[in-house]
């Protein structure tokens, strides 16, 4: 199995996990607790080497981009693709809910225990910790690590001969942790059995009543249209002689990991590995662009938030949604998406909670309607975001000419 292609390994793991969910007696409280523990350990293993990989790869990426005189060009392309992809998915969510009217969800009487919120001041404090080395401790919020790597990389751009040994060591460490993460990606193909098993049990409980099935079908169709049609077409338009279907093939494994784990950080090592191995994206782009996309390009969450909120609205009221309200919902979802970097799992539902609270008008607790399906709708958001990162990084790399020609 070790020498199989990576997508075959993951498909086998997913099939085994699916079978285990139906065969093993995991519906009991004890069985569910054991499975939840195993799944948590698997995710921890998958993230274990992520921070050192991002730190050393980020340093070398900034140095090499500066050396090739394309730091500004790469940064502009990255920002533009992140923002435009988010706006595109915002518009798609806006149009989708106008065209498709999903059935109402029965009102629940569950009590609110704690209302989620985004504390902007805390996020800024996390971005700039009291010690720069603290940036390498948190494995959830990756932005401080990336900022630290950018600062160190910028320092390495100074023309001092005594920095050459440091650059050589950093380059070696970057390669070392990339190789280690490749091994961990293979290990995760075994661990995906537990992740898939856990996801299947949750999915069965969600669709048992049939209440959420129309929403799940709509999100499935949206995912197919976005990843199978819209992204390849945009890639073809923006990349002369680009190969969108090769990108589509490369995104298969990251999208599967993202969908069944709902974890954007867990997906990042696979994105970086397949971006390099399958698409030939060079380290200077690979180590800088993928993390930025993973943190900020959360258009999948925007799409899911808009659709979910409108479902909640129509479950509470028979009145049509005014255009001004739809515009507010869409733009607020767009803004909230850029605050999700500190929440690699569950961020979409938390943002939906905040959206309901901000909107008011009796909708403050509306998110409780979708609470049983929170993990499932988060799966679709994470999978779309993984596809956005893969296609987005390819577009940036192609337009900055940082793709190895023999692999393009």
Task: Give a written overview of the molecule.
- The chain is mainly α.
- The protein contains 16 helices and no strands.
- The longest helix has 44 residues, at 164-207.
- The model has no long low-confidence stretch (mean pLDDT 89).
Topology:
Elements: H1 6-23, H2 29-47, H3 50-67, H4 71-99, H5 120-127, H6 143-156, H7 164-207, H8 213-238, H9 244-250, H10 252-261, H11 264-277, H12 283-296, H13 299-316, H14 323-337, H15 347-359, H16 374-399
Helix pairs in contact: 1-7, 2-7, 3-6, 3-7, 3-12, 4-12, 4-13, 4-14, 4-16, 8-9, 8-16, 9-16, 10-11, 10-16, 11-12, 11-16, 12-16, 13-14, 13-15, 13-16, 14-15
Summary?
72% of the residues lie in helices and 0% in strands. The chain is mainly α and 408 residues long. The longest helix has 44 residues, at 164-207.
């Amino acid at each position: 199995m070790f020498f199989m292609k990576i997508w075959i390994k993951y498909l086998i793991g997913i099939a085994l996990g699916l079978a285990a969910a139906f065969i093993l007696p995991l519906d009991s409280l004890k069985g569910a607790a054991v499975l939840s523990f195993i799944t948590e350990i698997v995710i921890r293993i998958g993230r274990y080497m992520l921070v050192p990989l991002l730190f050393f790869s980020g340093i070398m990426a900034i140095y090499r981009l500066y050396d090739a005189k394309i730091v500004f060009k790469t940064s502009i392309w990255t920002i533009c693709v992140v923002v435009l992809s988010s706006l595109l998915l915002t518009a798609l969510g806006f149009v989708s809910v106008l065209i498709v009217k999903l059935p109402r969800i029965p009102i629940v009487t569950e009590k609110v225990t704690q209302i989620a919120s985004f504390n902007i001041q805390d996020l800024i404090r996390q971005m700039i910790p009291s010690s720069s080395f603290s940036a390498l401790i948190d494995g959830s919020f990756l932005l401080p690590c990336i900022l630290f790597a950018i600062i160190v990389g910028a320092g390495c751009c100074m023309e001092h001969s005594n920095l050459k040994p440091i650059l050589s060591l950093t380059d070696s460490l970057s390669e070392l942790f990339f190789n280690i993460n490749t091994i961990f990606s293979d290990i995760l193909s075994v661990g995906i059995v537990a992740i898939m098993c856990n996801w299947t049990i949750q999915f069965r409980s969600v669709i048992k009543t049939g209440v959420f099935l129309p929403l799940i079908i709509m999100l499935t169709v949206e995912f197919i249209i976005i990843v199978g049609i819209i992204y390849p077409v945009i890639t073809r338009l923006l990349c002369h002689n680009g190969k969108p279907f090769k990108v589509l093939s490369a995104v298969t494994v990251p999208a599967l990991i993202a969908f069944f784990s709902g974890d954007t950080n867990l997906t990042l090592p696979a994105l970086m590995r397949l971006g390099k191995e399958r698409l030939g994206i060079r380290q200077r782009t690979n180590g800088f662009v993928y993390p930025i996309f993973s943190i900020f390009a959360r258009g999948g969450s925007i799409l899911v938030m808009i659709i979910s909120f409108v479902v909640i609205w129509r479950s509470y009221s028979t009145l049509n949604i005014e255009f001004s309200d739809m515009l507010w919902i869409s733009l607020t979802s767009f803004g909230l998406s850029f605050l999700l970097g500190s929440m690699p799992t569950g961020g979409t539902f938390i943002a939906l909670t905040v959206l309901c609270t901000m909107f008011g008008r009796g909708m403050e607790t509306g998110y409780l309607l979708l609470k049983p399906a929170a993990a499932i709708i988060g799966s679709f958001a994470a999978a779309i975001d993984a596809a956005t990162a893969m296609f987005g990084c390819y577009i940036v790399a192609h337009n900055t000419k940082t793709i190895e020609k023999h692999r393009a």
